[in-house]
Amino acid sequence: MDNTALAERIEPQVAPASETAAIIQMIERAASNPQVDIDKFERLLALRERIDRQAAIAAFNVAVSDAKGEFGPIVKDKEVDFTSQKGRTHYFYEGFDTVAKAVDPVLKRHGLSYRFRAEQNSQRLRVTCILSRGNYCEETTLEAPEDHSGNKNAIQAIGSSATYLQRMTLKLALGIAASKDDDGKGSSGGEPTVSEDQIGELVALIDSVGADKGRFLKFMGVETLAALPASKYDAAVKALNERGRK
């Protein structure tokens, strides 16, 4: 996306109300005139569509901004703790129901809604969150492998990845984050550990560079990604990127 398109997406240039009303009146008069030139009329209709789109984008951005100011805290109120052949996994997270409970009433007040589209291919799941207001929408897409951790069966693996991606894409679309209910202190002796978003990024990076997760954890000196100190996150990303360049 070039800078011009990006600027239009963030701050669309909407014509003043008086100017917009005058243009709309001109189009309406042209529509009722059987002698109007068809080419000119089509250009007027295209102009009307651009005006309507710009107004819809502006209204969408205002609604999202106002809604973000009203969201209450989203707490990581669920806990995962299990031991497998790969070691112990322990972390906190907020469920999709927790996120929805916090944002749904606010979004409704501002005329916003969301839905999801999912695609599956080669044991990977792609989920798109579609955030809408009126006839304008924006899409946020993430993908991840099926989650077979914790001895999940095939259906559970798909469901786990689906709810994770739904939660993550909705949070990204709204620009919100969750806070740990233990103030960010994990199993690393009280030192703040990586966030769930960072864990997700590390998992995706491990998968994309074909790294061995067990060896990577041993290299970082932790048993699970959830136990990785936040201070070591940048070093972990650097190590994985270097692995990908080999």
Counting DSSP H or I runs of 4 or more residues, the number of helices is 8
* Number of DSSP E strands: 7
CATH topology of the largest domain: Ubiquitin-like (UB roll)
Q: Assign the CATH class of the largest domain.
A: Alpha Beta
Question: Strand order within the widest sheet?
Answer: 4-5-6
Number of domains: 3
What does the largest sheet look like?
3 strands, antiparallel
* Estimated radius of gyration: 24 Å
SS class: alpha+beta
As a percent range, the share of strand residues is 15-25%
In whole angstroms, how far apart are the ends? 30 Å
Give the ordered list of helices and strands. HHHEEEHEEEHEHHH
What best-fitting shape do the alpha-carbon axes yield? elongated
The low-confidence runs, each spanning 5 or more residues with pLDDT under 50, are 1-14, 181-190
Provide the CATH architecture of the largest domain.
Roll
